[in-house]
Amino acid sequence: MASSQLFIIFAILAISAPSILATNYVVGDGKGWTINFDYQAWARGKMFYVGDNLVFNYPKGVHNVFKVNGTGFQQCSAPLDSVPLTSGHDVISLATSGRKWYICGVAQHCAMGGQKLLITVFPSSFAPSPSPTWESSNPSWSAPAPSPTWGKEAKGKPSSLAPAPSPTWGYTG
Ligand SMILES: *[C@@H]1O[C@H](CO)[C@@H](O)[C@H](O)[C@H]1NC(C)=O
């Protein structure tokens, strides 16, 4: 009796804990993803962790979202073979640590409108495990767990930036 109730409680925790721990960052907050907005100022002071999500909100058809590398970010150019996100409510799971670059590929929105975002993602200290082990009488969320691969970033090349044990701060290019 009691143990089956406990099991249900743990099952609920196991399902809901990762979504509690993950943070959704709405890029640009109320302004959304648009031109003439300082996305570096928006990102400043925020701590992005593996497992968090970026949400790009914009009127569908007006903008889009390309994930690019550092060169593409500086030059406002996306690889010819890459496909942008265009839904107007694009959710990107931050699957790996390191720097991430996003630009709008419409017209001159990136080059002239500054519609570009650079963030640094830190390894999660709350890595949700796909199969948490509940045997431990004192489960610790801080235990390093193999980080599951989330979402659409999985098909991209692994970041050329290895997760740094001591993350480098700032945007030194
Ligand atoms: C960045 O992406 C471009 C394609 O847009 C590619 O040609 C270049 O080699 C990439 N640079 C790095 C450092 O991966």
UniProtKB/TrEMBL annotation:
Single biological process term from Gene Ontology: response to symbiotic fungus
Start and end residues of each stretch annotated as Disordered: 131-173
Protein's UniProt name: Phytocyanin domain-containing protein
Species of provenance: Prunus persica
PANTHER family: BLUE COPPER PROTEIN, PHYTOCYANIN DOMAIN-CONTAINING PROTEIN
Any one GO molecular function term: electron transfer activity
InterPro entries in the record: Cupredoxin, Phytocyanin-like, Phytocyanin_dom
Any single GO CC term annotated in Swiss-Prot or TrEMBL for this entry: plasma membrane
